[in-house]
Amino acid sequence: MSLYLPSDSLARAVGADDVALALAGQDLQRTSSRGLYWLEPLLEVGTAQGRIGFGPLTAADVPSVLDALQGDPSAHPLALGLVEELPYLKTQQRLLFARAGITQPLSLDDYRTHGGFEGLTRAVSIGGEQAATEVFDSGLRGRGGAAFPAGIKWRTVRGTQAAQKYIVCNADEGDSGTFADRMLMEGDPFLLIEGMAIAGITVGATYGYIYVRSEYPQAVSTLREALDIARANGYLGANVGGSGQAFDMEVRVGAGAYICGEETALLDSLEGKRGIVRAKPPIPALQGLFGLPTLVHNVLTLASVPLILAKGAQFYRDYGMGRSLGTMPFQLAGNILHGGLVERAFGLTLRELVEGYGGGTATGRPLKAAQVGGPLGTWVPPSQFDTPLDYEAFAGIGAMLGHGGVVAADDTLDMAQMARFAMQFCAEESCGKCTPCRIGSTRGVEVIDRLLAAPDQSGRDEQAIVLKDLCDTMQYGSLCALGGMAPFPVVSALKYFPADFGLQPSEADQ
User: Fold this and answer.
1) 31 and 143 inside one domain
2) Do 213 and 356 fall within a single domain?
C-alpha cells in the first residue's frame, strides 16, 4: 500500500516531517502539495478506487490511521474520502497545477509520465517562429501583475538582433498572501525549467536566471537540484532537447528587497547593483540585463508555456473570458476558513472564491473586505464580491488582480490602520529614486496620523482632502507600481470604510 505525504514547506511547517518519521517503515513517497492547506499535513493512501485522504494529521494520529487502513478507513475521524472528489479540488480547472500533490518534485520519470517535456519537444519540431506565434495566439498575459501580452514580448526579443540574449524569471514572490510561485518551484520545478528552455530556444537566448527571494530556501535547493538533473538528461546545455541550440540557466537569490519584484530593479540586482527602478524606455526586451535583449516573466507565466506548446494555442484560449484567457492560480489567505490554492479559468466571481472555496472567515465573523493583488491591492467590500475575476472587470472597479493573492478580513479589522500600513510599507520598501514615492509615502503616514488624531470633524475632513490629493500625486507621478499602487488600499479604505477614519460617507468621496 503506497502512502503519499507532501514535502511542501508549508506542510513541513505544520508537522509533515514528524508524520513522515511516524510512518517509518511504510511505503511512503514525499510529493508536492495539492494546495489544500487547511488540511495539511494531508496523508494520501493509494487504493483501487483512487487516493483516499486523512488530514490534518499529526504524528500521534498515525497509529490509528494505520489501524483504520486494515479495516474500514472511512470510519476514522480524519478520513476525507477520495481526495480528488473533495468539492474544493474537484471543481477546479488545474492546468498549471495538474501535477500538484501527485508527483515527486525531483522525479524526472514522474514529470515525463504526466506530460512533461511534451511542450519542449513540439517547440523544437515546429521551430522558433511558430512557437512564438503559438504563445501570441494563446492570449497568455503576464501573471506577475501587469498582465502585458506575453506573445508581444516574445516577438520583440526574438526580432531584436544581438550577440547575446537572456531569459529572466522573476521569482521574487513578495506579495502578502501569495504562494503559488513557491508551490510550483518546490513541487514541480521541471515545469518552470521546461518553460524557460522553450523561451530560450524560441527567442534565441542562450542563458537564463531564476531570481528567487531569499525567504524561499527550499525552492532554491529544489530548483538547483532539478537543474542538475535536467542538464544531465539533455534538457539544458549545448543541445537542448535535440534542438541544436544551446540554453542553460542558474538560480540567483535575492536579498529581501520588495522593490526587486519590479523587473528593472530586479535586473539591476542581477547585475550586482542595488535594486533601483530604471526609467523606461528602453524596455528590457530591447535593453535589459547588461544592456542586452531580455525576456522577463514571472514563474506562472513561464510555467504556462509548456502546456500551450503541447496542447496548442486554441486549447488554452478555450479557458477564460474576454481578453483574460487561460487559468489563474488564486491564493486564499488571511482570515479564511479554507486557505489554499484555487486554479480556475478567469471569470468566476470573488464571492465564489472567498465564500465558496474559502468558506468565509476562520473566525466565523462577517467578511468585511478582501484585499486582492498584494499589500498594495485594493480593499474590495462584499458589495463588489460579484465582480468577475478578470483583468478588465477588476480595472473597472479601480482594482487589479495582480499575482492572484486574496487576503480576507472580518469585521474587526481597522481599515484606517491598514491604510497607514500601506503607506508605511511603501516608505520602507521604496528604492528612493522618484520623489512621489520616496517623499509621498512618508508624508502619507504623517497625514493619516493627523487625520486620526484630529479633535473634530472639520480637522478630519481637512486631512482627508490632503490625503486624497497626496494619493493622486503618488498614483500618477511615481516611476513604478510601488508608489503608483500604494494609494490603492488607502483610497479604497477611505471610500468604503470611512467610519474607520472617523469620517462621514459623503466626505470620503470628496
Assistant:
1) no
2) no
The total of structural domains in the chain comes to: 4
Task: Evaluate the CA torsion angle 481, 484, 487, 491 in order and state its sign.
Answer: negative
Do 307 and 251 lie in one domain? The reply is yes
CATH at residue 339: 3.10.20.600
User: Which set of grid coordinates corresponds to residue 8?
Assistant: 511542501
Long-range contacts (CB closer than 8 Å, 24 or more residues apart) made by 286-292: 286/156, 286/160, 288/166, 288/168, 289/166, 289/168, 289/209, 290/164, 290/166, 292/162, 292/163, 292/164, 292/165, 292/166
- From first to last of the 510 residues of the chain, give the pLDDT tens digit: 899 999 999 999 999 999 999 999 999 999 999 999 999 999 999 999 999 999 999 999 999 999 999 999 999 999 999 999 999 999 999 999 999 999 999 999 999 999 999 999 999 999 999 999 999 999 999 887 778 899 999 999 999 999 999 999 999 998 888 999 999 999 999 999 999 999 999 999 999 999 999 999 999 999 999 999 999 999 999 999 999 999 999 999 998 888 888 899 999 999 999 989 998 889 999 999 999 999 999 999 999 999 999 999 999 999 999 899 999 999 999 999 999 999 999 999 999 999 999 999 999 999 999 999 888 899 999 999 999 999 999 999 988 898 899 999 999 999 999 999 999 988 988 888 899 889 989 999 999 999 999 989 888 999 999 999 999 999 999 888 888 888 899 999 999 999 998 888 864 454
